[in-house]
Specification:
Blueprint: H1 13-31, H2 37-40, H3 51-70, H4 95-115, E1 122-124, E2 135-137, H5 138-164, H6 168-176
Antiparallel strand pairs: 1-2
Helix pairs in contact: 1-4, 1-5, 3-4, 3-5
Length: 181
């Protein structure tokens, strides 16, 4: 899991955008490092957010944006009735399973972005008050994924520290098999 985004090869804008998205994914993945499913479902504040819920949300959110860009139906689309289930693990779901699902989505995102003719290629957005009007580019999509995942990675840092005092730096060190102290 990336902690610092390496400089891309000269002119490799796709690679740079993909690397920044992966760096933000790493923040959320690390936040659940070493936790049981029960611990990851903990809600240590007045918020309804949990680490496992954030994990599931960002995985499904990335899938939704990918399907919009691909102009394909989203097989995990949420309705008003199932919206809340996108923020918590439900029967049979686990942190490990959600991480594996997200790995698949991440791989598919990378393949798709590397295959499009140009980052200037566009796709339409459905009409909704939370979407910009009209079409957006693949570049916009990647920048939005950085923004969306980074926002939730920050939430994940706070939740993890509230659960057991472990900071992002400690989790990076643990992941790398070193010590922060």
């Amino acid at each position: 899991m990336v902690t610092h985004v390496p400089a891309e090869a000269y002119g490799d804008e796709r690679g740079a955008l993909l690397a920044f998205v992966e760096a933000q994914r790493g923040g959320i993945r690390r936040a659940v490092l070493g936790l049981s499913d029960e611990q990851a479902a903990g809600r240590p504040s007045a918020s309804e957010l949990s680490l496992s819920g954030l994990l599931k949300h960002v995985a499904e959110c990335e899938l939704n944006w990918l399907r919009l860009a691909q102009r394909k139906p989203n097989e995990r689309a949420r309705t008003q009735e199932t919206w809340g289930d996108g923020f918590r693990l439900v029967e049979g779901e686990t942190v490990a399973g959600t991480l594996a699902f997200w790995d698949g989505v991440a791989h598919e995102t990378e393949e798709f972005i590397r295959s499009v003719g140009s980052l200037d290629d566009t796709f339409p957005l459905p009409e909704a008050p939370w979407f910009p009007k009209g079409e957006v580019s693949m570049r916009w999509l990647m920048l939005h994924l950085v923004e969306e995942i980074a926002r939730h990675a920050g939430h994940a840092d706070i939740i993890r520290e509230s659960l057991d005092g472990r900071t992002a730096f400690e989790l990076v060190a643990q992941e790398q098999g070193t010590s922060w102290a």
